[in-house]
Amino acid sequence: MQAAHPMVLLPGREFLMGTDRPAGGPADGEGPVHRVRLSSFRIDPYTVTNARFASFVAATGHVTDAERYGWSFVFGGFLPAAFPPTRAAAHAPWWRQVHGADWNHPQGPHSDLDGREDHPVVHVSWNDAMAFCTWDGTRLPTEAEWEYAARGGLVGQPFPWGSVLEPGGRHRMNVFQGRFPAENTCADGYAGTAPVDAYPPNGFGLHNVTGNVWEWCADWFDPRYYAHSPLHDPAGPARGTHRVMRGGSYLCHASYCSRYRVDARSASEPDSSTGNTGFRVAQDPPASNRRR
Fold this sequence. Notes:
Structural class: alpha+beta
Distance between the termini: 27 Å
Shape: globular
Strand content: 15-25%
């Protein structure tokens, strides 16, 4: 299976990964800043859309983890006022357990994908993303590849376009505006997900690498990994309990989660799913073009 559109070829080179700014939580392991030398690779300019994931499901009959479990987490602000009370996430009560929520019903059984075909697929676990890659002839990017691609050629900047969250007062990504979690002004034009090409690309041609949806990476997560990761093509720890997610989502807000940065990290269990997690794919170039 070939990619739905041309992928971006990034030549192998060295870059500075991570941050020493105290922006994330101590458990995130965003530092120290360290040198990484990557071989060349290809990466999708967009996250995988609902339409593209639907093609995968139609071709393979894949059943996602959320469908197997019968539920997934949905942001409470998307639920109807009369929605029955359900279990909330322990440390994030705005997340509600919703039976019948899955990639095809992103805000619960009362919702569908009408008008969201070009939005990123959500309620997909790391396992689901890996199954898609097997069908698609691609793979998930490593965490180092993801950060290098997300930076778009800039050095030491928190955002794909530079250091200012809203340069010139313009919204450059889809995150939460207003008073979280009760009041979203939707000043950037979106309450939930936005189309995968909704904002201008970074310097490498990648869209929406921050905000919109968290993106699964291939690596196991370890907050101490940066202190001893190898220089060449780091691929994460050999084992773990959680997989890396990068980029933040439409629910990130400065009051509690400033992880809408290219150097921010998070993680979740490989079989978990939420209404703000998706993925983009990568690929190795032909061997003759893979240089360090």
